[in-house]
Structures
1.
Amino acid sequence: MAGNSLEVKKDSKFFEVIKRMVKEQPLGTAGAFITLIMLLVAIFANYLTPYGINHMTGFVLAPPSLKFLMGTDNLGRDIFSRVLYGARVSVIVGLLATLISVIISTFIGVTSGYIGGIFDLIVQRFVDAFMCLPGLVILMLLVSLIGAGLWQIIVVLGVTGGISGSRMMRSVVFTIRESTYLKAAIAIGASTPTIFRRHILPNILAPLIIVFSMSVPGTILAEAGLSFLGFGVPPPTPTWGAMLSGDARTYMFRAPWMAFFPGFALSILVYSVNMFGDSLRDILDPRLRGGIGRYGVKTKKIKTSE
């Protein structure tokens, strides 16, 4: 008599993703770690900075030293303190604006892709017309109309990004709509809210996470670009984009640290989030996942006897 004994181990998907990230994606792990550090710096900037946002130290254009780690600017303000405070704006705008963008793109993409027909045709022609417009010009125009400020920037970046990003969610929903399990749910009389809640939304969760993580860098760069052009968060709040313009360009050769450190911080944050988002895509995308049973549920044969 022969018998097989199998042990099925169900790991938490969250911890499974973390384990795979550490094991298979070292760059993504480093990117996630640096992003987490930046987030903590943004939250606790008040406790980490030696000086206030606009505190005049009395040392004008002082080079980097033990007293001023990143030097001072033309007004004697500590650049290290302003860079840490600038992280707060970049992280807040990057996360909240991207969250708004994902919500809007999900709503437009899911409704348009599921309903289809004339409704989808009208919505997508509106999206096409919007995407034909130059993005930076539209951002500058909208900010000029509603005024400059932190929340205004978040809303503008979130809405414009959501309209442009709805195309991807629409294509995902198109694929789900043609699946057998969704047609079976319709055949047995499942209501539309039930179909959305139990069949569509759970199956677009992984693409949503990927879109969110990969959209944050673009949002941060868009905010930095607006601040560089003078359409971002108004003074005296420091932002990395604003610190790269104005006085930094005037004193670029005399005091290069005024532009170097904000630009370096911006580059590190964008690169880290990009690496994290790219690694997360490789892990969550079923086509890149690898062998059967590698994710979520693992089946291991532990005993065979005759």
2.
Amino acid sequence: MKAFLRGLVLVIAAFTLGDTAMAADLENTLYLDVPAGRVVIAMRPDLAPQHVAQIKELARRGFYDGVPFHRVIAGFMAQTGDPTGTGAGGSGHKLKAEFSNEKHVRGTVSMARASDPNSADSQFYIMFAPAPSLDGQYTIWGEVTSGMEYIDQIKKGDQARNGAVTNPDKIVKMQVAADAEKAK
């Protein structure tokens, strides 16, 4: 409900303030194309400005295009962002944690990391369901505003192998909405 209300406020603001507000919204929106369709993610620079900046920079470089969802656990989350598909890769640029009081609920987009809280890089996950045990432990940087049904369709991994996926689905394309709209 909170995500819906935030989205509604953005839409109202865009219509009230005109093109400037709409452009600002598109600059902090991602289009994540997966095999089943387009997922729209509202980025949250108010929560995690450094993480949002890095995600946008990597998306603009095409870093995420073709990257597999290497770890997908039914009823929990779908993880991607490692071009090697092993869970050990990344862009090579680690970020300092930007923890917040936001909750890990269905549609939350948050950074994966190693045991070091300051080890997030390019890997992220999208929640299928609430996971209060993750709250305050991982950097939340966005939320799915539409297309969650396409995330639900991503191929699930083997529970016995911590969600590792054989022949995983891949990101078709990930782009900043402002760039995609300019290209039209």
